[in-house]
Write a structure and sequence with these properties.
Largest sheet: none
Number of strands: 0
Strand content: under 5%
Structural class: mainly alpha
Helix content: 55-70%
């Protein structure tokens, strides 16, 4: 990509990312769900921070990326989906069960993609470890164990961010708010899409907290919520 095209793309990112993050009072919109998610971060940030630092990732950026998932986390729904994944994914793979599990709502397919991309990257050599990516029950069982704990999900989140920086080197040169918008959109929508597609998706209102989306469901921009949290001091 030429220098001029890079400048154009960065300008587009700023335009697409300007959004309306602060025209909506998200803490008020989500009320007790926001407060509970914020309290969860307050209780766990200290134990998460060293995991992110191990991969040279800004903890505040990482937490902001997944904060919208903490808002809509449902303990009972997660228990049901985790049981289904444990029962079907291990034996049959993602085609049999691919529910989002855990506080950060990670799918087995997401973990599979991260495992494969990590193994192919220079980061695997730099950090001196690789994942078992065999199409085998024991490999899938171990993958579920990794995403089945908060520590494991933090590691996957950190690795996801490092891989995104590796795939899009210019991302790290942007202000933290723009990084969060891009990373949050990639995490919520699809981390494998192009730079331009990510910018387009930043404008889409697809996030909601209803169990089932209906005509009356209110939708929001995932990245707006992430950025709002980043700028909100933990009370």
């Amino acid at each position: 990509m030429t220098f001029h095209r890079q400048i154009i793309m960065l300008c587009l990112l700023l335009i697409y990312g300007s959004g309306t993050a602060f025209s909506i009072n998200y803490p008020k919109v989500f009320g007790s769900d926001w407060a509970q998610a914020e309290q969860f971060v307050r209780e766990h940030r200290a134990e998460w921070k060293p995991i992110f630092e191990e991969f040279d990732v800004d903890a505040d950026v990482a937490i902001a990326v997944v904060f919208p998932e903490l808002i809509r986390y449902s303990r009972w729904q997660d228990a049901i989906e985790t049981a289904a994944v444990n029962g079907l994914y291990i034996s049959g793979g993602k085609s049999k069960a691919n529910f989002s599990i855990g506080r950060f709502q990670m799918k087995p397919s997401f973990a599979e993609e991260i495992d494969e991309e990590w193994n192919k990257s220079k980061l695997a050599r730099e950090f001196d470890f690789v994942f078992d990516i065999r199409d085998a029950a024991d490999a899938r069982r171990n993958r579920l164990k990794r995403i089945g704990t908060l520590e494991g999900q933090c590691r996957y989140l950190a690795i996801f961010i490092r891989l995104m920086y590796l795939r899009h080197p210019r991302l790290q040169t942007l202000p933290k708010e723009q990084q969060i918008r891009f990373l949050a959109t990639a995490y919520n929508y699809d981390h494998t899409v192009s730079w331009k597609q990510n910018l387009r998706m930043q404008k889409q209102r697809t996030y909601h907290t209803d169990m089932i989306k209906t005509r009356s469901t209110k939708t929001y921009r995932y990245s707006d919520i992430a950025v709002t949290f980043y700028h909100e001091p933990l009370r």
